[in-house]
Amino acid sequence: MELTVSLDIICRLIVRARALEAQVPAIETDEDEDPQDTDDALSVIEDDANEAVEAEIVALLDDLGDDQIAEILALAWVGRGTYDASEWDEAIEEANDPDGEDATDQLMEMPMLAAYLDAGLTAFDLSCEGVGQID
């Protein structure tokens, strides 16, 4: 299996997906509540405070070709266990299916995208160790 998308891009996607997964739903405060009484320490990880992460992931995917996005989706499927590493060609074929759901949408809807991509890389003896921002 030879990836057309660079390992650096996949690793950057993993880092950003981890940041997205770390977010928690925003806490709605009571309108009558005194803003001084609220605990704002966790506001940095609330969805509303960091929508830029999701936009960054979408922009990263939008910069790729359809075949590269399909490759990332297939890699996530291998990491999730939908396909085995030996079934790479089938995973790529399914990810490239024009009648299927949009690959970017599928990736954005995966609740554990970072873990799936990391496991997918591991299935092919690849890793993000020493690549870009990941040590």
Order of helices and strands: HHHHHH
What fraction of the residues are assigned to beta strands by DSSP?
under 5%
The overall strand count is: 0
Total helical elements: 6
Describe the fold and architecture.
The mean pLDDT is 82. 50% of the residues lie in helices and 0% in strands. The protein has 135 residues and is mainly alpha-helical. Helix 1 packs antiparallel against helix 6 (113-123), helix 3 (66-80) packs parallel to helix 5 and helix 3 (66-80) packs across helix 6 (113-123). It has helices at 7-21, 51-62, 66-80, 88-95, 103-109, 113-123. The chain is built from six helices and no strands.
Sequence-ordered SSE layout with sheet pairings:
Blueprint: H1 7-21, H2 51-62, H3 66-80, H4 88-95, H5 103-109, H6 113-123
Helix pairs in contact: 1-2, 1-6, 3-4, 3-5, 3-6
Keywords:
135 residues; mainly alpha; 6 helices; 50% helix; 0% strand
Provide a short characterization of the protein structure.
With 135 residues, the protein is mainly alpha-helical. Helix content is 50%, strand content 0%.
